[in-house]
């Protein structure tokens, strides 16, 4: 079973692929889209859940998503049809770093996808290229809530603590105007949902040749979470505006 199929099954009950509950997602979008008629871009949109929720709640919004996964974009198209918003959504099958839009956007989203650009600041640099004057960026990034083990760093990367993460963003020319730190409930719910969904699929499809690998993956990932990074990993989502040069 390839990574895309594992991800699709794992997120069946948690389509927002980050540790955020529905209320948190709604509040972040409210702060990112204060007018309701903006043009919004998701860099690394996957199955498009952020865009679909924004479009469903705002009938005057227009959105575009970019992703390298044809399967994920197919899910996004089907989701748009199911919610009746397909006429306001444009999807691009290409690398996000190669995307050249016809017009800038009032909101650029990249939540839980900074690895695709090589880290937090390169992701913000990519978002800046697509942002209209006065626009906002919605970004989600992991951080170390406590001192991590070497195993956790090897697994999740060279993150910083929360204060340092925000300091780096501010030093790069951004001002946070809203933020959300994922709660213990959100963090745990996300992990239980992912690996529970994958394990459930494996048990429900015992004759499928991928079932043993899926169950092994679910058990391994759950153990890694509980033993290696559960007590040290945090996740912050920020709505950012560009800091004027004269300030």
Description:
The structure is a single chain. The protein is α/β, with parallel strands linked by helices and 247 residues long. Helices cover 44% and strands 22% of the residues. Strands 3-2-1-4-5-7-6 form a seven-stranded mixed sheet, with helices on both faces. α1 (3-10) crosses α8 (184-204) and α8 packs antiparallel against α9 (211-229). The mean pLDDT is 96.
Task: Profile the largest sheet.
Answer: 7 strands, mixed
**Order of strands in the sheet with the most strands?**
3-2-1-4-5-7-6
- Tally of strands: 7
Low-confidence stretches: none
- Global geometry: globular
Please work out how many helical segments DSSP would assign: 9
Beta-strand percentage range: 15-25%
Average pLDDT over all residues: 96
What structural class results from the helix and strand content? alpha/beta
C-alpha end-to-end distance: 51 Å
Q: What radius of gyration results from the CA coordinates? A: 18 Å
Element order: H for helix, E for strand? HHEHEHEEHEHHEHHE
Helix content: 40-55%
Task: Please provide a brief summary of the model.
The chain is α/β, with parallel strands linked by helices and 247 residues long. The chain has helices spanning 3-10, 22-32, 49-57, 70-83, 120-129, 150-156, 162-171, 184-204, 211-229; strands at residues 39-43, 62-67, 89-93, 105-111, 131-144, 174-181, 233-242.
Please describe the topology of this protein:
Layout: H1 3-10, H2 22-32, E1 39-43, H3 49-57, E2 62-67, H4 70-83, E3 89-93, E4 105-111, H5 120-129, E5 131-144, H6 150-156, H7 162-171, E6 174-181, H8 184-204, H9 211-229, E7 233-242
Parallel strand pairs: 1-2, 1-4, 2-3, 4-5
Antiparallel strand pairs: 5-7, 6-7
Helix pairs in contact: 1-8, 8-9
């Amino acid at each position: 079973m390839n990574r895309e199929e594992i991800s699709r099954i794992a997120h069946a009950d948690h389509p927002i692929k980050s540790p955020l509950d529905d209320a948190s997602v709604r509040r972040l979008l409210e702060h990112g889209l204060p007018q309701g008629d903006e043009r919004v871009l998701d860099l690394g949109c996957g199955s498009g859940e952020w865009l679909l929720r924004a479009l469903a709640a705002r009938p005057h919004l227009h959105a575009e998503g970019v992703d390298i996964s044809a399967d994920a974009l197919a899910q996004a198209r089907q989701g748009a049809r199911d919610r009746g918003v397909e006429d306001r959504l444009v999807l691009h099958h290409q690398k996000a770093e190669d995307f050249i839009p016809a017009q800038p956007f009032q909101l650029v989203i990249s939540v839980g996808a900074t690895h695709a650009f090589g880290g937090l600041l390169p992701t913000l640099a990519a978002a800046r290229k697509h942002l209209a004057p006065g626009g906002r960026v919605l970004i989600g990034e992991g951080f170390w809530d406590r001192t991590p083990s070497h195993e956790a760093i090897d697994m999740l990367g060279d993150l910083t603590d929360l204060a340092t993460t925000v300091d780096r963003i501010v030093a790069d020319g951004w001002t946070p105007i809203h933020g959300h730190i994922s709660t213990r409930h959100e963090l745990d719910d996300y992990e239980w949902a992912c690996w529970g969904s994958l394990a459930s699929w494996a048990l429900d499809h015992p004759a499928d040749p991928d079932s043993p690998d899926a169950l092994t993956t679910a058990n391994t990932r759950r153990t890694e979470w509980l033993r290696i990074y559960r007590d040290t990993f945090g996740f912050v989502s920020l709505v950012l505006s560009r800091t004027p040069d004269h300030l």
